[in-house]
Amino acid sequence: MSLPGRFITLEGSEGVGKSTNLDFVCERLRRRGLEVVATREPGGTPGAERIRELLLSADDDDPLDETAELLLMFAARAQHLARLIRPALARGAWVVSDRFTDATFAYQGSARGLDPNVIAQLEALSQRGLKPDLTLWLDMPVGRASARLSLRGGDADRFERQRGDFFEKVRDGYRQRAEGDPERIVRVDADRSLAAVQADIGAIIDSRLPAMTD
To answer: Where do the annotations place ATP binding (predicted)?
Structure first.
């Protein structure tokens, strides 16, 4: 069933500026008079946020199995879809999310090496055909993203602690997703000033709005 709202996602590895640019996208849409719901994955609802805590916390005594990680990602996503995303889209709101299923194909598929066919089956089960209308892939060299991440300070989560080769695989996974769905996934060169990145994002949003608001 088609829903009246629209769904935009921002994707990319750690350190590329998704959170900052998500705020920019939301504000640009709100200036058009649209109802906008900002969210993130894993998380977005109280139940999904509790799953997020488990996914991001490191326990050296009981490390999280890779298949368990994948299933938890989709458990959080199913809750997110049921309690936040679908209801918002049903009332005509625009949902803007920091990550969605492209991240699962990149992280658990490409980087962890889990079967993409299994991921696709879980995608079909949980999403029932729902996909983003537009995905902005913020891309930059892994070394540059890692340098930005190091400036944040604070404790790193399970994913941020991974080595550089892990994130090279993540980046390659996103590249493959973009090549496979070029109409939906638009690459944005994030290795530039914030003003330059947001100028490109703004132009993409403005160019897509007429078709997305028909």
So the answer is: 12-19
Annotated binding site: 12-19
With 0-12 CB in 10 A as exposed, 13-18 as middle and 19+ as buried, what is 164? exposed
Indicate whether 162 pLDDT > 80: no
Is cis: bond before 42, omega within 30 of 0?
yes
Global pTM reads 0.94
Distance CA 203, CA 208 (A): 9
Does pLDDT of 153 surpass 60? no
Write out pLDDT tens, residues 102-143: 999 999 999 999 999 999 999 999 999 999 999 999 999 998
| Residue (of 36, 177, 157, 188) closest to 97 by Cα position | 36
Q: Element (H or E) spanning 136, and its range?
A: strand 134-139
Q: Where are the alpha helices (DSSP H) in the chain?
A: 18-30, 46-56, 66-80, 86-90, 101-104, 116-127, 142-150, 164-180, 194-212
